[in-house]
Specification:
Elements: E1 3-10, E2 14-24, E3 28-37, E4 46-57, H1 58-61, E5 79-89, E6 92-101, E7 104-113, E8 122-133, H2 134-137, E9 144-156, E10 164-176, E11 179-191, E12 194-203, E13 206-215, E14 222-232
Antiparallel strand pairs: 1-2, 2-3, 3-4, 4-5, 5-6, 6-7, 7-8, 8-9, 9-10, 10-11, 11-12, 12-13, 13-14
Length: 243
């Protein structure tokens, strides 16, 4: 059963939407206000929308996402909800979105370009996460868990092989190797599979400052690390089997 309601008027060049409501497929709902331009021109279609409610599921999204658009090592959360604003087109779009999923929550405020080409996507954004389950999304549940953070991210691409990006901010908590690390300040970059990161950790079981450089292009990553270590309790961090 499909349900459509609301006030929609204008033309295909400029369409105005007032309290538009849609319910359909298995788990998808949409309630929006705003305008959409150039509906007949796929390359230039643009929008200025306030999203009051958008909720869907991975099964519904898979009906529309082109094959190969999502990397094989990414798992879409089972349920997704979103509220906020979107302005622009697939070439240049600005967002301020609060996203709630069965794998944790995030807020994304920033600019995206080249959305139609995931490998070439360009971004400049502020990213806030709350208990976002990276292990589930990246299919690494034995290594990674949830992350709560306030980060600034800019660059292009999300695949580590082609990614060119910078990141800085604070990771309030992140689970790695079944231990929940806290209070990590990080400033890093990756380009052509060469990466560097400067981080400081003030966790009850690990207190250090670290500067890491590495190369991910070979069969095995190479890493060079300089560290100022105050204390590391390896047993508590699940790095050793005893104290």
């Amino acid at each position: 059963t499909w349900i459509v309601d609301g006030d929609v008027h204008g033309s295909m060049k400029q369409l105005y939407v007032n309290d538009f409501y849609f319910k359909g497929l298995q788990n998808t709902r949409l309630n929006i206000d705003g305008s959409i331009s150039s509906l007949l021109d796929v390359n230039n279609i643009s929008a200025d929308l306030a999203i009051r409610e958008f909720s869907t599921s991975s099964s519904d999204l898979n009906l529309f996402i082109p094959k190969g658009a999502i990397p094989g090592n990414i798992t879409i959360p089972e349920k997704i909800g979103m509220r906020g604003t979107i302005k622009g087109n697939t070439g240049n779009i600005r967002t301020d979105l609060a996203i709630n999923t069965t794998s944790g929550n995030a807020r994304v405020n920033g600019l995206f370009r080249n959305l139609s080409s995931p490998k070439n996507i360009i971004y400049d954004l502020d990213l806030n996460t709350q208990s976002l389950n990276l292990g589930s999304i990246l299919q690494m549940p034995e290594t990674l868990g949830t992350i709560t953070s306030d980060l600034k991210l800019s660059g292009s691409g999300f695949d580590p092989v082609t990614m060119n990006a910078k990141m800085n901010g604070i990771i309030n908590s992140v689970t790695f190797n079944k231990y929940n690390y806290k209070n990590i300040n990080v400033d890093g970059a990756i380009r052509n599979q060469q990466f560097n990161a400067i981080a400081s950790i003030a966790d009850p079981n690990i207190d250090l400052d670290i500067d890491i450089n590495g190369d991910m292009s070979g069969k095995f990553p190479s890493i060079q690390m300089d560290a100022q270590i105050d204390s590391i309790k390896t047993f508590a961090l699940n790095l050793t089997t005893d104290t």
